[in-house]
Amino acid sequence: MSRNFRLEAEMKEAAVAAGCLESALPDFEMDVQTYAVTSAAEIPKWIEKCKTAKPHRFAVQTDHDAELCQKAFLFKHKTSESQLYRAVGEQRFNELKQMYASGLPESEKKRLNGSADHSKNPWRATPDNLEPNSNRYSAAAFKAQVSIVKSLGLAKAAALAAACGARVGDVRAPKVAA
After folding, report:
1. Residue 4 carries which DSSP code?
2. Which of 113, 72, 109, 115 minimizes the C-alpha distance to 94?
3. Under DSSP, is residue 137 helix (H, G, I), strand (E, B) or coil?
4. Domain range for 89
5. pLDDT (average), residues 25-37
6. Cβ atoms < 10 Å from Cβ of 172
7. Which residue among 57, 69, 70, 169 is least enclosed by CB atoms within 10 Å?
8. In whole angstroms, how far apart are CA 142 and each of 45, 54, 121, 131?
């Protein structure tokens, strides 16, 4: 039998409406070509089945790999950028790039802060972590920061610092709103 281009187009249109990744559209075309779907009436049921059986075809727009985004956009790591681009597609990549353009998004700060106790966070602007009458980190705070970077790794340490509005390597603590 010959290809059913009309059905392929309907399948792709329905898949896009359901939130599939642009990179997954050829997979939906192949579903029509391999007779997984043979009529337009079967398309909605097939897409619902794919959402559970083949979730890699759909982008979860509210959930993304925050660690990979931080590496890609905050640390300017090109390999992470390309991994993220391949994982989420061009449109979502650009959305995430916009979201991280001015640093860590508020939603990520809230997620990182959560209900955790940050009182001992060495990037926090507290009198214990700062030199007297200054906003420079103390030697003890630097020692604690280096220890965290060594034990947890740069990405997790950067997430801890970002939770306080700072960055790894900062000499001065961020200004705290009074």
Report:
1. -
2. 72
3. strand
4. 66-99
5. 91
6. 13
7. 169
8. 57, 47, 11, 11
Please report where in the chains the tokens 């083949």 appear, as a residue: 54
How far apart, in whole angstroms, are the C-alpha atoms of residue 97 and residue 63? 14
- Token pair listed for 9: 């187009």
Q: What share of the chain is helix, strand, coil (3-state, %, to 5)?
A: 60, 5, 40
Length of the chain: 178
Kindly report, residue by residue over 87-129, the tens digit of the pLDDT: 888 888 888 888 777 776 666 666 655 545 566 788 888 888 8
Whether 129 contacts 137, CB under 8 Å: yes
* pLDDT, tens digit (0-9, with 9 covering 90-100), for 49-82: 988 888 778 765 445 677 788 788 878 889 989 9
Q: Within this chain, do residues 83 and 126 fall inside the same structural domain, yes or no?
A: no
CA 51 to chain CA mean position, Å: 20
Beta bridge partners of 172: 136
